[in-house]
Write a structure and sequence with these properties.
Elements (H helix, E strand, L loop, with lengths): L2 E5 L2 E5 L11 E7 L14 H13 L4 E5 L12 H15 L5 E5 L3 H9 L4 E4 L8 H6 L4 E5 L17 H18 L7 E4 L8 H9 L1 H8 L4 E2 L5 H7 L7 H14 L3 E4 L2 H14 L3
Parallel strand pairs: 3-4, 3-10, 4-5, 5-6, 6-7, 7-8, 9-10
Antiparallel strand pairs: 1-2
The structure holds 6-hydroxymethylpterin-diphosphate.
């Protein structure tokens, strides 16, 4: 399935239409400007570090940089608007000249609004633009929107990992969010969807969603972003701690692309880009 995704200054043609076309995906490098992120917590706190890490990811082949100022790992506490803005905005301004799309990972309408004014190319909301004011904050712009599925909040989600049919329920949720966005006048070309791996889901749920990325893409008719990098499901399958999940994460990324994902949110950009290059030579639709 072919998609066009508008992300602020950038437009992407994603996916393939014909059997025999090589599969590929955009790579979104994760830049956490938080002191408590689960896998690279605290390492890129200073602006200087954040800039050099972002430059490194671009040199490694990242198509997008996802700047996050609030950890959403299970059980994490939320931060104030002021705190989040003070982490995200300097990085956003400093990285505008990088020449790659800048995404801001936030669920706060106030942060979305400031990020859009500062020229963010995408808003990545793990909450699916459900907070009052979130849709208004992004409506009158050209920025891309990543709509993720999550039940409850990061603080409580693992207690609520109960589904009758996780794939169907994720699709219904995302369809409802897409309807809310388009009803507000937002063009579908700006939207991609994400099943939200690890957000209120067991290993079995995550595996079922991974196996059904193609169904999610077909039923919603939108590009799918997959974020499996270093997550606990990779750890559960491999028995590895977070710092030893690279190989498992690469396998997860390629599995997601094989199923139809066209955007990958990853920590290890160079390795993912290499894996995709090899994959592209043989992985066809
Ligand atoms: N996962 C995390 C954060 N944001 N956004 C999307 N669209 N999809 C995801 O799967 C996703 C996300 C959690 O990963 P990470 O950023 O590494 O951890 P933390 O939130 O603790 O910074």
């Amino acid at each position: 399935m072919r998609h066009f995704l508008q992300c602020g200054r950038f437009g992407y043609s994603l996916g393939a239409e014909h059997v025999g076309e090589p599969r590929s995906a955009l790579v979104m490098g994760i830049l956490n400007v938080t002191p408590d992120s689960f896998s690279d917590g605290g390492r890129y706190q200073t602006l200087e570090f954040a800039i050099s890490r972002a430059e490194e990811m671009v040199a490694d082949g990242a198509d997008m940089i996802d700047i996050g100022g609030e950890s959403t790992r299970p059980g994490s506490a939320s931060v104030s608007v002021e705190q989040e803005l003070s982490r995200v905005m300097p990085a956003l301004y400093a990285l505008r000249g990088l020449g790659k799309a800048l995404s801001v990972d936030t669920l706060k309408p106030e942060v979305m609004r400031e990020a859009v004014i500062a020229g963010a190319d995408m808003i990545n909301d793990v909450n699916g633009f459900r907070k009052p004011g979130a849709i208004d904050a992004v409506r009158d712009s050209e920025c891309g929107l990543c709509v993720m599925h999550m039940v409850a909040t990061p603080a409580t989600m693992q207690q609520q990992a109960v589904y009758q049919d996780v794939v169907a329920e994720v699709i219904v949720f995302l369809a409802e969010r897409i309807a809310a966005l388009t009803a507000a006048g937002i063009d579908r070309k700006r939207i991609c969807v994400d099943p939200g791996f690890g957000f209120g889901k067991t290993v079995a749920h995550n595996v079922a969603l991974l196996q059904n990325i193609g169904r999610i893409e077909r039923e919603l008719g939108l590009p799918v972003l997959a974020g499996l990098s270093r997550k606990s499901t990779i750890g559960a399958i491999t028995g590895r701690p977070v710092e030893q999940r690279l190989a498992g994460s690469l396998a997860g990324a390629l599995a997601a692309v094989a199923q139809g994902a066209t955007l990958l949110r990853v920590h290890d950009v160079a390795e993912t880009v290499d894996a995709l290059k090899v994959w592209q030579q043989v992985g066809t639709y």
